[in-house]
Amino acid sequence: MLERCEVLVEGLDHPEGVCVDANGTLYAGGEAGQVYRIDLEEREAVQIANTGGFLLGMCADARGLLRVCDVARRAALLVDPRDGTVSELSTGLPDRPMVNPNWPVFGADGALYVTDSGRWKADDGWIWRIEPDGTTSVWTGQTSGFPNGACLTADGRALLVLESTTPALVRVPINDDGSAGAREVIASLSGTVPDGVTLDADGNAYVCYYRPDRIDRVSPAGTVETLVEDPEGTILSAPTNGVWLDGDLIIGNLGRWHLTRIPLGVTGVPLRYP
């Protein structure tokens, strides 16, 4: 499979977060706060904004506005790709500020779920819930082992979350009233540092690892199989997050300066664009 992987676009600053908006426009972030729009025809990255921090996860709403996690600013931010405007969405609560905002996911009801990884190996992570009006609350503290990448299930009734230091892929149900159900372990991922996760239409999870340079496919039953691994760390280098685009899996590489395209011919789970 590694021989089928290709560099989609170069010249990015250690991209971790990637997302696709409702119109199929691809975006990525950089470690110095850069927000890039990817020109797929020219295969180049165009910087459209800068938050002044360090970008991790990102997602888009129906208007094409981006929600981004900035770990340096310790905030969830709103970025308008049309003019590059950056505004603050949430920094947490007065008595519990954000520590390590990592990945944003829109729920079926329009709420934004944001993993807060906490401190490395301190087992103090949690997940925020940010309402459309900006009201912020702690959604759950069950995923305390450095909650990292996350995605919404196809039915919108649960979040899949990677815990980097557990390490494991877990499921947290979203109750009818919006509260969190009991955390369930889907698969143990011992010996790795899982970072990002995305789903296909059949419910398989694709897990990107900060360590090793590998992507696994995890079935709904929790069976783990390696999809692709790069022992040299050149095509895949600390692959952190992935998104689906026309059947291809597009991967950010925190360890290098490019996005990787993996042609799989797979349909990704439809994203929510409130």
Can you offer a commentary on this structure?
The protein is mainly β. It has a 4-stranded antiparallel β-sheet with strand order 1-26-25-24, with no helix packed on it. A 4-stranded antiparallel β-sheet has the order 2-3-4-5, with no helix packed on it.
Distance between the termini: 35 Å
- Count of extended strands: 26
CATH architecture level-2 label: 6 Propeller
Structure annotation, total helices: 0
Supply the number of structural domains.
1
CATH topology: Neuraminidase
CATH superfamily: TolB, C-terminal domain
Main β sheet profile: 4 strands, antiparallel
Provide key terms for this protein:
four-stranded antiparallel beta sheet, globular, 274 residues, Neuraminidase
Write the layout of secondary structure elements.
Layout: E1 6-10, E2 18-20, E3 26-29, E4 34-39, E5 44-50, E6 55-60, E7 66-70, E8 75-80, E9 85-90, E10 92-93, E11 96-97, E12 101-106, E13 112-116, E14 126-130, E15 136-140, E16 147-152, E17 158-163, E18 168-173, E19 184-188, E20 193-199, E21 205-211, E22 214-218, E23 224-229, E24 239-245, E25 248-253, E26 258-263
Antiparallel strand pairs: 1-26, 2-3, 3-4, 4-5, 6-7, 7-8, 8-9, 10-11, 12-13, 13-14, 14-15, 16-17, 17-18, 18-19, 20-21, 21-22, 22-23, 24-25, 25-26
Summarize the model shown.
By secondary structure, the chain is mostly beta strands. It has strands at residues 6-10, 18-20, 26-29, 34-39, 44-50, 55-60, 66-70, 75-80, 85-90, 92-93, 96-97, 101-106, 112-116, 126-130, 136-140, 147-152, 158-163, 168-173, 184-188, 193-199, 205-211, 214-218, 224-229, 239-245, 248-253, 258-263.
